[in-house]
Amino acid sequence: MVVVTGAGEAFCAGQDLKLYFRDNEGDPIKMAKARRDAHEWRWNRLSRFPKPTIAMVNGYCFGGGFTPVVACDFAIAADEAVFGLSEVNWGTIPGGMVSWAINQALTYRKAIYYAVTGETFTGTQAADMDFVTLAVPKAKLMEATMKLARSLEAKSPAAVRATKEAVRSTRGMSQEQAMDYLSAKSESAQFRDREDGRGKALTQFIDEKSFKPGFGDFKR
Questions:
Q1: What is the pLDDT of residue 28?
Q2: Domain spans of the chain, in order of start
């Protein structure tokens, strides 16, 4: 389980403009390396992490901060959190995968509106737009995040991993491609399940009558 949050009043204030543009000015090799390094942790590692990932948005989230929010499997924001794509006000675009990332989590109309106007929106609005999983008062943010984390930890790790990979991977597939992929994924998930979560759940549901899907987790 990984929970990503910010230290202080902000979740992420975006890119360090001075570090990127001034310290690397005139050195395209350093700028390219900085872009690759940022993309590696902000998207590749988070989106492909084998365990559940949760973005706990505790405050301001601007620009490049949008990418890790989308990369995480779940996102819980404080009602008071403030989101913004301010790049247009600096005469540039939401780069570094941000433009692509917001299209994965927002409708086209919302994505282009907030990207082109530079207007901000709150955690509550983010939940209403499905940009985050849910929003709660800031005083209850940690409690809500840990509640979700504990509920995920109670489930079969192999099933959770396979399920999140299946949902994420099939988004851009056709029905035929998804059918083939999911058949293979289901078989591989059983092979990788060292705890035999499926077998235990079936025993508890069919034989012992101690487990009812939707009304609790099976006993690991």
A1: 79
A2: 2-152, 156-207
Q: Compute mean pLDDT per 10 residues along the chain, 220 residues long, and list them.
A: 94 75 71 73 88 97 94 97 93 87 95 97 98 98 97 91 93 94 89 80 81 74
φ/ψ of residue 80, rounded to 5: -85, -5
Q: At how many degrees (to 10) do helices 175-192 and 157-169 cross?
A: 160
Question: Which amino acid would we find at residue 208?
Answer: E
- The CATH code of the domain at 2-152 is 3.90.226.10
Which residues, 6+ apart, have CB-to-CB distance to 14 below 8 Å? 62, 63, 64, 65, 86
Residue 148 has a pLDDT of 97
Alpha helices in 51-173 (DSSP H): 66-71, 98-105, 108-117, 123-128, 141-153, 157-169
